[in-house]
């Protein structure tokens, strides 16, 4: 290994972020990586002897002691979850540097990492709230200049019956839906570069078919090619983050359930509802982990595989999926 201890921390951060970009993280995630690395790096530069501007801090100067001091100052006015996230970012950074033979080892195990409690689920409150939300969206209630109930129901159903994250919804293509009737599935580009395949039960299948049919009527068959974005706005353009969030918020408002949506979990409450109902209806932890695309059951446990049949049985037990069948058929009638 060549001696690279004199390499600039700031330059190596740039190389790390370029390498991470190949995994297609969201812009928000990339910004968080950069912020955590440069913020702690700046604190380390200020605590160095003598103090240095960040541009002059070399990777070889980052001893375990200096990193501990920098993280101690970083943690002074931040929540444990923020400190834990920054620790993970720095651990990934040094893992990259070791692989690139820039440094001989990773000093992060010598830097204390706070224990953070697992986040508590934040599902929609109220036993029948998901069904009320779907029914309201299907009726196209409220003052809308260009109502599109089929699209709104499809968005809500993908989150409530497949547990998709916001970024996963936006990444879907028409061709992400595959398989024959009765064996339909959706291929999801999951968080952290972990793809997964989810079973699509008849209710969700009918909702998505109704949405795509309505899209053909609006914009023509050319808009539903396999590589076309699955979710589009009222002009036929790909839905973006802000537009998707606004769509879900407007569905809450029209259904009159805003007070049943937990603070800080607006769209994510739909995903949490999916997982909570799976657990209530008898799904095991391994099935829930697999269906939601989590890396592990908890930070100390390894990833557990389950069969496709078990996944389909878990989704089939979801009450919201069963309700969708009657909803779509009532629309058709």
Features:
mainly alpha, DNA polymerase, domain 1, hpI Integrase, Chain A, elongated, 333 residues, 13 helices, 2 domains, 52% helix, 3 strands
Helix and strand pattern? HHHHHHHEEEHHHHHH
Largest sheet features: 3 strands, antiparallel
Which value, in Å, is the CA radius of gyration? 23 Å
CATH level 1 class label of the largest domain? Mainly Alpha
**How many helical stretches?**
13
Under CATH, the topology of the largest domain can be stated as hpI Integrase, Chain A
Strand order of the largest sheet: 1-2-3
Mean pLDDT: 86
Uncertain runs are: 297-310
Could you please describe the fold and organization of this structure?
The chain is mostly helical and 333 residues long. It folds into two domains: 102 residues, Tyrosine recombinase, N-terminal domain (DNA polymerase, domain 1); 204 residues, Intergrase catalytic core (hpI Integrase, Chain A), CATH 1.10.443. Strands 1-2-3 form a three-stranded antiparallel beta sheet. Strand 2 and strand 3 form a beta hairpin. The longest helix is centred in the N-terminal third of the chain and has 21 residues. It is elongated. The termini are far apart. About 4% of the residues have low confidence. GO terms for molecular function: DNA binding. Pfam families: Phage_integrase (PF00589). InterPro entries: CB, DNA_brk_join_enz, Integrase-like_cat_sf, Integrase_catalytic, Integrase_recombinase_N, Tyrosine_recombinase_XerCD. Belongs to the 'phage' integrase family. This is Integrase.
